[in-house]
Design a protein that fits this description.
The protein is α/β, with parallel strands linked by helices. Helix content is 43%, strand content 14%. The relative contact order is 0.11.
């Protein structure tokens, strides 16, 4: 038999199925006596769980997460540097920065995971056993097939043709919807501004602008803002040292009423400019057009880890056209222009740093219109090793598309960023303004509390929250008199929470009598918890800091995004492992307790001298008077 015929075994060597089709029926070719090895390439845990139950005798589901994580570590640098495959600096790279491609944010895109899945698929095609992969999108399955064929493989397609509307029509309708929504918000904001004009004189006197996410309670009535959820006590410290502070407010209007946010800001004495104060109709059109033309900038010569990935990246680029991320990012470019028009000349603009598209376009606009302003990116949250969104590409470093200064929350992250930027900009271990409470832990109290329940902390990502909750419920249901509290992330809305409850009830066949759902603050709940279960929530650090053990729950089908260092937590991949760990923690008080030194590597106290020395070496002499004031803040 030829090598070609071995690769092309028509029935069982390799095949691609679509999840929703498989929920209805199993193809006849797969109805054999022995279970076939099966890889699930998707994120919808509800569908995955139903398929595992329905075809437990026909399909042998592989836990793909460990394989994906191994590949992800090997190819992360290639994925981080995808910008080399996107056109010109002026257009292609600008759109790339605005997109989820440039962000690599796992909560917004499956790009990284799907690249790893494609690489895994190619590796499995080289093996001599039979297997199938299940995809959630027919177009992704077709993309995998095209990649395989270009490498000499011919997997069998079980993908049914569907009568769908033209893709361009779907993209156009979706982008028009985003445009209308953005225009409506802009129009409403302009109406608000007619009654409540900008405090231009106050804004022109600002020394330091802080970029914040505005809520209905962000600003105090008839006085100046003294603290912030993300900036901690920094506003107060700046004011006490004689610096005039202003705010660039990005309203969280996907959760809260825009009117309530505006009314709250209007009652404050602070100098506040909203993002929509800077945006024009032209900016919305730029975002609208950019979202549609984005895929045309992708090079056909795209290759990652010796795999020709163009078809998979094209699938992801077309998906980008259906999102509103590019439009949302591009409008932040207008802030620099508006500042120039209003004659605002701050010395420094500080923005919270996560590597998101809006941050990059904020910096682009400021550099274009206010080249003398110094831009400082302040990391405010811990990140997992596979959170590529936090890192800069080689091209970012070469083209100086970075903040002028980057501050970190701890020594571990400072070292990661210093290696990443290769000396292009100063990196400070400034300290964790947002996590100041973790610095007040008394190390003499190193004894685990006798908690009353298991606390499960969900995240902002629906699929991983559902998987986490299902595994937590299944494991605790077998323990007598065990109580489980499932806590919702504070930025999730009512729909998210109600759907999660409904899907949990549909998936699980065990008792839910021991389960309680809570919207209480996680800091309050932790006080009486005996162990915390999490996947990407940073609440694990709050628990560890008061000597409550944390267990990271790995995914069956996706990448791991554990923000807590391995030395500070335990990991359970499945219900059996979780049940065992919970049992062991009842018997062993010292299990998973973390030293204060480990926590301090993640979250540091402010380091004033290093920060100011680096500021002086990178910011022009005319600003040194103001910087000396900043130095006193952290002394």
């Amino acid at each position: 038999m030829s090598d070609h015929s071995k690769k092309c075994t028509p029935l069982f060597h390799s095949g691609i199925l679509e999840a929703n089709d498989l929920l209805k029926e199993l193809p006849e070719q797969l109805s054999i006596s022995q279970p076939i090895k099966c890889y699930y390439f998707g994120e919808t845990y509800e569908t995955y769980a139903k398929l595992k139950t329905k075809y437990k005798d026909q399909l042998d589901f592989v836990n793909v997460s460990p394989k994906l994580n191994k590949i992800a570590k090997e190819i992360s640098n290639d994925v981080l540097n995808l910008d080399v495959f996107f056109g010109s600096e002026k257009f292609g790279h600008a759109l790339y920065e605005a997109s989820t491609f440039g962000e690599h944010n796992p909560n917004l895109s499956n790009l990284f995971a799907n690249i790893c899945r494609c690489k895994l698929f190619m590796e499995e095609l080289e093996q001599d056993y039979n297997f199938v992969v299940i995809v959630e999108h027919t177009d992704f399955g077709l993309a995998l097939s095209k990649v395989a064929k270009k490498h000499g493989h011919h997997p069998l397609l079980f993908l049914k043709k569907k009568n769908r509307k033209p893709l361009w029509l779907k993209i156009l309708r979706q982008q028009l919807s985003y445009f209308r929504s953005a225009y409506r918000d802009l129009h409403e904001h302009h109406k608000y501004r007619k009654k409540h004009p900008l405090k231009i004189n106050a804004l022109q006197n600002v020394d330091v602008f802080l970029m914040i996410w505005a809520r209905p309670d962000s600003f105090p009535e008839h006085e100046k803002k003294r603290s912030d959820v993300y900036w901690g006590q920094l506003p107060k410290l700046l004011q006490e040292n004689g610096l005039k502070v202003g705010y660039i407010a990005s309203p969280m209007n996907w959760i809260f009423s825009q009117t309530d946010i505006q009314n709250n800001a209007d009652k404050s004495q602070d100098a506040i400019v909203f993002v929509n104060d800077c945006v024009s109709l032209t900016d919305l059109f730029k975002g609208f057009i950019g979202s549609i033309i984005f895929p045309f900038f992708l090079s056909k010569r795209t290759s990652i880890a010796n795999v020709y990935m163009y078809d998979v990246l094209k699938f992801e680029a077309i998906n980008e056209c259906i999102k509103g991320r590019i439009l949302h990012s591009i409008i932040h470019n207008s802030i620099g222009r508006k500042f120039k028009n209003l004659n605002l000349k701050p010395s420094i603009v500080l923005h919270l740093y996560e590597g998101q598209g809006w941050e990059k376009h904020l910096r682009r606009g400021l550099r274009q219109y206010l080249p003398d302003v110094s831009i400082i990116g302040c990391q405010h949250a811990p990140f997992a090793p596979l959170y590529l969104s936090f890192l800069f590409s080689d091209l970012d470093v070469q083209k100086k598309r970075l903040p002028d200064i980057l501050t970190t929350i701890g020594a571990n992250d400072a070292q990661t960023f210093k290696t990443n930027v290769k000396g292009a900009i100063p990196v400070y271990n400034l300290g964790a303004l947002r996590y100041e409470h973790l610095m007040k832990i008394d190390p003499s109290h190193k004894k685990r509390k006798n908690g009353h329940f298991v606390l499960c902390c969900t995240s902002i990502a629906y699929a991983e929250s559902l998987e986490l909750a299902c595994k937590a419920i299944s494991a605790t249901s077998t323990i007598a008199n065990e109580k489980l509290i499932i806590n919702f992330h504070p930025v999730t809305d009512k729909s998210f929470r109600e759907n999660l409850k409904k899907d949990i009830a549909e998936i699980l066949d065990c008792s839910l009598a021991h389960v309680e759902y809570s919207e209480e603050s996680v800091q309050v709940l932790i006080k009486d918890a005996k162990v915390i279960l999490y996947n990407s929530s940073a609440a694990a650090f709050d628990a560890i800091a008061v000597y409550i053990p944390a267990i990271y729950i790995g995914s069956d089908t996706a990448l791991d995004f554990n923000k807590v260092p391995q030395s500070m937590c335990n990991k359970a991949q499945n219900v059996t492992e979780l049940s065992y760990l919970l049992d062991q923690m009842e018997k062993n008080e010292e299990l998973a307790l973390t030293s204060l030194k480990e926590i301090q590597k993640c979250f540091a106290k402010p380091d004033a001298e290093s920060l100011i020395d680096e500021l002086k070496s990178t910011i022009s002499v005319r600003r040194l008077g103001k910087l000396n004031k900043i130095s006193r803040i952290y002394s």
